[in-house]
Design brief:
By secondary structure, this protein is an alpha+beta fold. The chain is built from 10 helices and 16 strands. The longest helix is centred in the N-terminal third of the chain and has 14 residues, at 114-127. The radius of gyration is 22 Å and the shape is globular. Guanosine-5'-triphosphate is lined by residues 103-104, 106-107, 139-141, 166, 168-174, 192-194, 196-199, 217-218, 240.
């Protein structure tokens, strides 16, 4: 059989084993656009079938870009910079030039200063050892910034191929779909979903007679919380519209719970305001620090949810770390993939609790 690839996820098509990746019934081979069974079920029933492709397989695939000559567009999720900026990118893509794209800006408050945010991103990339040609902010679902980015790509690619690279779920395929829609009118050509690991192989979209735009599978970062929650909870914790910051005036000795997935204790300092950026669907509970443990033990999974029952079976235990915030700058305490809390670092001490594999960190304020 001639080698055929799924148009939705890039996997090699086969007609033998219905449980293995790339299966499609022989009768579907006649169709012009071939979809594998997994993409078909994702598209029509929003249901995911796990595949036996390892994190390492994906990394190897993407690392082949090292031997290619093209422009690398590194897409990150602006809501989870920590979990989606690939620090080892220069090793993966070799000497190819990199354009950094912060996707999902539609989630940030409208008042966000985009210029400043671009500077912030460039500095973060530099700190991580990634040299970028340009930084762009976009929303692949709403279309913001797409025209500017298309121009940047056209200029930077110098008639070469373009590789779209990033961790799982940052919106690489959604972005390419938007480009395809803009230039051909066809919508939803590539399969996208809120599950990590949707794209399974390279998908080439011709740009002209000689060059292509290439979608790639997401690099898996096991420190992303998406790997430790149920499908239902993943839906809840992933914001799908503009985040409404929630502000709490706290005295020391008070605790905030973010559902039951993370917790921040205000241990020491003057009365301060804590601005919380989380999916609007994650409830935030304020309690006294002295009651916090007991509340957790009695109400994890009900009052403090998510986690739901399924998540509780797989969620790593919460790990504690303390931060002393000084210097007076606006600082974010980041719970990767969940959100962050912004506070003025006016000699305060906080203790944070987050799932063990997903450690909290601090950074200079994003907003
Ligand atoms: N709010 C928002 N959501 C987005 C945006 N772009 C993508 N998404 C959502 O993010 C999720 C992942 O999108 P995909 O395009 O499948 O991501 P991917 O990077 O191709 O993921 P893999 O193929 O798993 O590596 C989907 O639920 C998208 O709807 C955006 O600009 N804004
Ligand atoms: Mg994809």
């Amino acid at each position: 059989m001639e080698e055929l690839y799924c148009q939705g996820c890039g996997v090699l098509i086969q007609t033998i084993d219905p449980q293995a990746p790339g299966y499609t019934p022989t009768s579907s081979l006649e169709k012009e656009n071939i979809l594998c069974k997994r993409c078909f079920r994702l598209k029509h029933y929003n249901e995911i079938q796990d595949v036996a492709i390892t994190d390492d397989d994906f990394l190897k695939m993407v690392s082949s870009i090292r031997n290619a000559n093209g422009l690398v567009v590194h897409v990150i999720d602006i809501f989870d910079v920590h979990g989606s900026l690939i620090k080892s990118l220069p090793r993966i893509v070799g000497n190819n030039p990199i354009v950094l794209v912060g996707n999902k800006v539609d989630l940030l408050p409208k008042s966000t200063n985009k210029r400043k945010l671009e500077h912030w991103l460039r500095a973060s990339a530099k700190e991580a050892g990634i040299n970028v040609k340009e930084v762009c902010l976009i929303s692949s679902t709403k279309g913001y910034g797409m025209k500017e980015l298309a121009e940047v790509i056209e200029e930077q690619r110098e008639q070469r191929d373009v590789y779209i690279v990033g961790t799982t779920n940052v919106g690489k395929s959604t972005f390419i779909n938007r480009l395809i829609k803009q230039s051909t009118g066809y919508s939803e050509v590539i399969t996208t979903s809120y599950f990590p690991g949707t794209t399974l192989g390279f998908i080439e979209i011709p740009l002209d007679d000689h060059t292509s735009l290439i979608d790639t599978p997401g690099i898996v970062n096991r420190q992303q919380i998406a790997h430790y929650v149920s499908d239902q909870d993943l839906k809840l914790i992933t914001p799908n519209k503009e985040i409404k910051p929630r502000v709490y005036q706290l005295n020391s000795g008070q605790t905030l719970y973010f559902g039951g997935l993370a917790r921040l204790d205000f241990v020491k300092g003057k009365r301060t305001s804590f601005i919380c950026y989380f999916s609007n669907q994650i409830p935030i509970h304020r309690t006294k620090l002295e009651n916090a443990e007991e509340l957790y033990e009695q109400h994890i999974g009900d009052l403090l949810s998510p986690p739901d029952e399924k998540t509780l079976e797989v969620l790593p235990e919460l790990k504690e770390s303390a931060f002393k915030l000084t210097g007076g700058d606006k600082t974010d305490v980041v719970f990767p993939g969940l959100g962050w809390v912004s506070v003025v670092a006016d000699d305060i001490t906080v203790t944070v609790h987050s799932p063990k594999e997903v450690s909290a960190s601090i950074r200079k304020s994003l907003l």
